[in-house]
Design goal:
The complex is a heterodimer of chains A (609) and B (334).
Chain A: H1 9-16, H2 24-54, H3 75-82, H4 84-117, H5 123-126, H6 129-135, H7 138-149, H8 154-157, H9 163-169, H10 172-198, H11 201-208, H12 213-242, H13 247-253, H14 259-267, H15 274-298, H16 322-349, H17 366-372, H18 377-409, H19 412-426, H20 430-443, H21 458-483, H22 487-494, H23 499-510, H24 512-527, H25 531-535, H26 544-553, H27 557-586, H28 590-595
Helix pairs in contact in A: 2-19, 2-20, 3-15, 4-10, 4-12, 6-10, 7-16, 10-12, 11-12, 12-15, 14-15, 15-19, 16-27, 17-27, 18-21, 18-24, 18-26, 18-27, 19-21, 21-24, 22-23, 24-27, 26-27
Chain B: H1 2-19, E1 27-31, H2 36-47, E2 51-54, H3 59-69, E3 77-81, H4 84-91, E4 95-96, H5 100-104, H6 110-114, E5 123-126, E6 130-135, E7 158-159, H7 167-180, H8 182-192, H9 196-199, H10 204-213, E8 218-222, H11 223-231, E9 236-239, E10 245-246, E11 250-255, H12 261-271, H13 274-280, E12 309-310, H14 314-319, H15 321-333
Parallel strand pairs in B: 1-2, 1-3, 7-8, 10-12
Antiparallel strand pairs in B: 3-11, 4-11, 5-11, 6-8, 6-9
Helix pairs in contact in B: 2-13, 7-8
The chains are: A mainly alpha (609), B alpha/beta (334).
């Protein structure tokens, strides 16, 4: 968390220092409207839609189909808080969120250290695993585990599943297991990027003074990584709280009620029980904000700014023969988090029926052929989603870059507010945001008559996607900008370089990998984003996730699995096409960096690259 | 400044790409039925009128979207399973009454005529009912259930939908109370639905999945869903309970604010024609296995139509809707 904060004198000086009159509109905005622009973007994209959903907890009649009224009533809140079910789901959500935040941060952190700092065989290949896991949406992973662990599922069919394990799986144990395996990439990205920024200068100094590796990690690297660990904990907690994929499958099947499912159930009928949905959303948001505030209060230190453009890549630990064990551990994670669920999805995509299992006569290529044929609903949906996702990623990462630059010069209060808002909005279930968007853009006078964006068009869907992605992009880019030593842009400013040019010619190249990371994360997440796609589905046709889920709920999981496989392959190839050439171009080879670290700049978020 | 120009150019281009205006179509259809897409395509081919088919997901999700749109509905036609919800939307003036002339043009069967609502809130286009789905790998032929009461012997292994999330499930629950009596019915369900992880499912697909994976040995499910699984080769059968079954009409409703009444009328004419009905059977998913209610139209092969119906007392069902749904939720879901 606090890795994103700074309050040193240089930053203050930058804020007030007068430079040459800035050029261009962007610079004018930077001087006068920086904080205002930041607040306005958040208010329009997230604040207003959210407020309209939440306000109905005290004004239950505001959007009633008939006789709408704005009279105040505490009845919905009382009803929700008196319900034993809601109390139970609050406890369940908290319990699950806390447990998974611990397990995920531990697993992701360990994975990042093993892959980035140890000489395990096959490091490059293994470092791809978190990306591939991240590529698979949670509802698919949940479905895969249901296919695997059910009493008539694939593992039982092979006699690999003891009955007791199967029944224990559908409960808290299974939820923690699947969430941890599915979210560990997030922790690995966050902690891994901090590790990359850390470099090894401090470590080398400690080693030269005779400190043992354990002591170095406990006394130097550990404290320096603490902000990233805290951030990973909070981000995971927020992710679990807002998750719907597992909530609607494994949790539902285990009768483990969580808040997101309660919101969904209240919102899936005519008329929608908006007050109940709003009240539960309010509880959910309060939980996340409590954790964010608690973190702020507990750790108020200013943060280290480590990246100066001189950090040299860290030395790899030589694990000796233990490296084989380390490799086995990472491969086991890869198998459970990726290979096994994908195999289940692939098996389902290639078989005709679920009940007949994996017998030769049950195999068919029909679903895959349907998913790959041009001009089918499946293929149209896929292309549409790839286009929307690309556009969303471009807008969200550019916007996050601009906002980050504004924020970096703003005071600590605004930074804290924006980070809090961002993490809070990660926890907003997409379904709540989606409803808010309908209320704003279809009900509010003024908004509903605007031609662009317009409810029912692709434009509003992309705007919703951007709102859901922006917090992530901000966290990734802000943490990279926050690590830049202030001297770099200060020097340029003193030479009379304008704000826009400083951003594009100095800051952007230094954090390019982070910006691209934000771009790709957004791209992949958006290809599979479900609740907003459902709520804001354009009239021109459904995006892929809506189609996949519709097929699942209409019981055609064969075709749904096939489309999902093709979508994952397409999104993955798209991401790889951007990532690899760029990385080759931007990042020097490790050996080159060692030759002359002073000129090569290896900065930014490098998620396990 | 090259780099800045190209930066703004990129942003500008992407804004332009988004701004591409949506084409105005002749009809906007909100639905949660498998056959709506093929029917819209066939309608378009025949009349030249364009239809935007919007399918957010399940019936509940479609209804949630309509509820959020509230007094500014964006659809011209809504087409979903369940009659009670159509009545509610008509009562809220989200739907307008179907013109009497539209019913008169259709050669309904007797079953079809019995489904026409007095309020004219919707036009029935077909129907289905609730049956017991049995996994033949789990239940031997000699042990097949024959009535709702027989499900007690499968207690703990019975999958059912939550009526709070599924219109058809509420129709079943109301019919179940009508045929078994309220108190006896509640007692019977309490003895049958003893596994909360199976009795609060959100869709027919989930009931199918529970029965097919063997988590449940029997399920209470819409019969068209069972027939589509049988057609796909899954090891299940549909058993109709001896107490009789309540039908679940598919309703087509017209938005109170539609600007395209002519096109909506033409759509109704097409759906109730032989061509429209053929399009409604042109597929293998659940809803294609509906029971036709128009004279001269046969169901898809393999679909049982010789069913003993009981007629649901709609007034009683809607008067107790909130109470019974909450009872179900408190007893078998939470």
């Amino acid at each position: 968390m606090t890795i994103l904060q700074h309050s040193n004198a240089a930053a203050f000086a930058r804020g007030v220092g007068a430079g040459k009159p800035p050029l261009g509109r962007l610079s004018t905005l930077a001087r006068h409207g920086g904080p205002f622009a930041v607040y306005a973007v958040f208010a329009l994209l997230i604040g207003l839609p959210l407020a309209l959903v939440l306000v109905q907890t005290v004004m239950p009649g505001l959007f009633a189909a008939q006789d709408a009224s704005n009279s105040l009533s505490l009845e919905p809140l009382a009803r929700v808080f008196n319900s034993p079910y809601v109390a139970g789901s609050v406890l369940h959500s908290l319990e699950l969120g806390m447990l998974v935040a611990c397990t995920t941060t531990a697993l992701g952190g360990a994975f990042a250290v093993l892959v980035q700092r140890c000489d395990i065989p096959g490091r490059t290949a293994i470092s791809m695993v978190p990306w591939l896991v991240f590529l698979t949406p949670s509802y698919l992973k949940a479905l895969a585990w249901v296919l695997l662990m059910s009493s008539g599922g694939y593992l039982a069919q092979f006699g690999l599943l003891p009955a007791s394990l199967g029944s224990a799986f559908f409960g808290l144990t299974g939820l923690v297991f699947v969430h941890t395996l599915s979210l560990f990439p997030l922790a690995a990205f966050i902690i891994g990027s901090a590790l990359a920024g850390l470099g090894s200068e401090l470590e080398d100094a400690a080693r030269l003074s005779g400190a043992a590796p354990l002591r170095i990690w406990l006394r130097i690297n550990g404290p320096l990584l603490a902000p990233a660990i805290a951030l990973s904990f909070i981000a995971t907690f927020a992710e679990v709280l807002s998750d719907f994929g597992l909530a609607s499958t494994i949790a539902r099947m285990s009768n483990f009620g969580v808040l997101t499912y309660g919101i969904y159930a209240a919102a899936s009928d005519y008329p929608v029980d908006f007050p109940a949905a709003g009240a539960q959303a309010l509880v959910l948001l309060s939980l996340v904000l409590l954790v964010v505030v608690a973190d702020r209060l507990l750790r108020r230190r200013a943060d280290p700014r480590l990246i100066s453009g001189r950090a040299r890549p860290a030395r790899l630990y030589d694990l000796g023969k233990w490296r084989w064990l380390a490799m086995a551990a990472t491969l086991a994670i890869a198998f459970l988090a990726l290979a096994l669920p994908l195999a289940a999805i692939a098996a389902r995509a290639l078989t005709q029926t679920l009940g007949h299992g994996l017998v030769w006569s049950n195999f068919t290529a029909a679903s895959m052929v349907a998913a790959l044929s041009l001009n089918t609903a499946a293929n149209d949906g896929l292309l549409r989603s790839l286009f929307y996702a690309g556009l969303t990623a471009l807008i969200a990462s550019s916007l996050a870059l601009l906002l980050s630059a504004q924020l970096d010069r703003a005071g600590p209060v605004l930074r804290s507010a924006v980070i809090g808002l961002s993490l809070g909005s990660v926890a907003i279930p997409g379904i709540v945001l989606g409803f808010g968007y309908i209320l704003v853009w279809n009900r509010l006078p003024g908004f509903r008559d605007w031609p662009f964006p317009h409810y029912g068009d692709g434009s509003l869907l992309v705007m919703g996607y951007v709102a859901a992605a922006l917090p992530y992009c901000l966290v990734v880019i802000l943490s990279a900008i926050g690590q830049l030593a202030p001297g770099l842009t200060d020097a340029a400013r003193l030479h009379g370089v304008g704000a826009t040019r400083r951003l594009l010619a100095i800051t952007l190249p230094l954090i390019l990998l982070s910006v691209v990371t934000a771009f790709l994360l957004t791209f992949i997440r958006t290809v599979f984003e479900l609740p907003i796609s459902q709520m804001l589905i354009p009239r021109s046709g459904p995006p892929a996730p809506t189609l996949i889920l519709k097929l699942f709920s209409h019981d055609r999981d064969g075709l749904a699995s096939a489309i999902a496989l093709v979508a994952m392959a397409a999104a993955g190839m798209g991401a790889a096409l951007v990532w690899y050439p760029l990385r080759r171009f931007v990042r020097p080879r490790r050996s080159a960096a060692l030759v002359d670290a002073g000129h090569h700049q290896t900065v930014g978020v490098e998620p396990l690259s | 400044m090259n780099v800045r120009t190209s930066f703004y150019l990129a942003i500008g281009l992407s804004a332009l790409a988004m701004a591409a205006p949506a084409s105005a179509s002749d009809l906007v259809l909100y639905d949660a039925l498998d056959f709506a897409g093929p029917v819209a395509k066939a309608f378009q081919a025949k009349t030249g009128l364009t239809v935007d088919v919007v399918e957010p997901g399940s019936t509940g999700e479609t209804l949630g979207k309509i509820a959020a749109e509230g007094s500014n509905p964006q659809f011209d036609i809504v087409w979903v399973d369940g009659s009670a919800v159509m009545e509610r939307m008509a009562a809220d003036h989200v739907l307008q009454a179907i013109p009497a002339a539209a019913y008169d043009k259709v050669a309904f069967t007797d079953l079809g005529k019995s489904l026409i609502p007095q309020s004219h809130a919707f036009l029935p286009t077909g129907t289905s009912t609730t049956a017991i789905e049995v996994n033949t790998k789990k239940v031997p032929a000699g042990k097949m259930p024959k009535s709702w009461a027989d499900l007690q012997s499968f207690a703990g292994g019975v999958a059912a939908k939550d009526p709070n999330l599924s219109g058809p499930a509420y129709q079943w629950l109301a019919g179940f109370f009508q045929t078994n009596g309220l108190d006896a019915g509640k007692a019977l369900l309490a003895k049958t639905l003893t596994n909360k992880s199976l009795s609060g499912l959100s869709s027919g697909g989930k009931v199918n999945k529970a029965v097919l994976t063997g988590d449940a040995s029997v399920g209470i499910n819409q019969d068209s869903a069972i027939f589509s699984k049988i057609a796909a080769g899954e090891p299940v059968v549909a058993v109709y309970p001896s107490e009789g079954s309540v039908s679940l009409p598919q309703g087509l409703g017209i938005s109170a604010k539609t600007q395209h009444m002519d096109a909506a009328r033409k759509f109704i004419d097409f759906v109730t024609s032989a061509e429209g009905q053929a399009a409604m059977q042109n597929g293998d998913d659940t809803d294609f296995f509906y029971i036709p209610i128009i004279k001269g139209i046969n169901a898809k092969p393999g679909r049982e139509t010789n069913i003993t119906y009981t007629h649901l007392d709609d007034a009683v069902a809607s008067a107790h809707e909130t109470e019974w749904k909450q009872w179900y939720k408190a007893s078998f879901v939470q």
